[in-house]
């Protein structure tokens, strides 16, 4: 069994005018030390998938079907007390806005020491020593001094490094990073992602990276999962998806990258927008925006077809693969 195995996961939000499904039939796995990226536009369901994995969904959202097996235990079935022993301990999460994560009225030391003492029976002195060591790991200069500072006294890049240090406090087996570089400038983004990659590799930590940036995914992850309207529509080795994306939506994301555009010309974009969860089109949810739409796309949800090293949920790809097999 895989280190993390998500099987047919479904997340529902109960609203006044009826329940809506934010995730539909999500299945993927992650091996120890492996790095995967989950990509898609805003509203694709990336962050909901991350919160569902650590069972951190707040009402009216809830896991309505499926299972999340982590080290053999179904996290969806654990009690809040049992989950607290896993969250922050075996699984750590890095959120996209460090100022929303860090408590502005507590020093960095107070926050790191409290985190350690919540999970381990150690003294404040020993906890502070561990905190200093973790700050050194994430290349924070003068770590003893930084511990006694408040979040507002640090730069954005420094705060994000602090968040990574806090995530590493318990030596987790898995880190979930939800858009960890969104609020940072490009040079700091590169430094943070390089640091995260180095730390995961040196500590054999699994990484689940949630992002809309295919450029970051191509540099950091080994496998990629492309989501659209709450479903996985393509998954496979990152290099293969970046170099030869099969699903029209994946191709649209790649073509929208700035480096794919001739200088001085308008950026490429996918026409239309992500559908509302309350108004998902019948059949393939991408069909209103797709240049290759067929009649079947408007009535039947496509199953996965193996194409190269990737699995693709697309009727067009399925037809092409079957046609190629008949020619052989």
From TrEMBL:
The scientific name of the source species is Sedimenticola thiotaurini
* PROSITE patterns membership: ABC_TRANSPORTER_1, ABC_TRANSPORTER_2
Give the subcellular location: Cell inner membrane
State the protein's name: ABC-type dipeptide transporter
- This protein's source sits in the domain of life called Bacteria
Report the InterPro entries cross-referenced here: AAA+_ATPase (IPR003593), ABC_Ni/Peptide_Import (IPR050388), ABC_transporter-like_ATP-bd (IPR003439), ABC_transporter-like_CS (IPR017871), Oligopep_ABC_C (IPR013563), P-loop_NTPase (IPR027417)
Q: How does it sit in the membrane?
A: Peripheral membrane protein
Pfam families listed in its UniProt record: ABC_tran, oligo_HPY
Its keywords, alphabetically, are:
ATP-binding, Cell membrane, Membrane, Nucleotide-binding, Transport
From which residue to which does the signal peptide run? none
ABC transporter domain sequence ranges: 4-254
Known EC number = 7.4.2.9
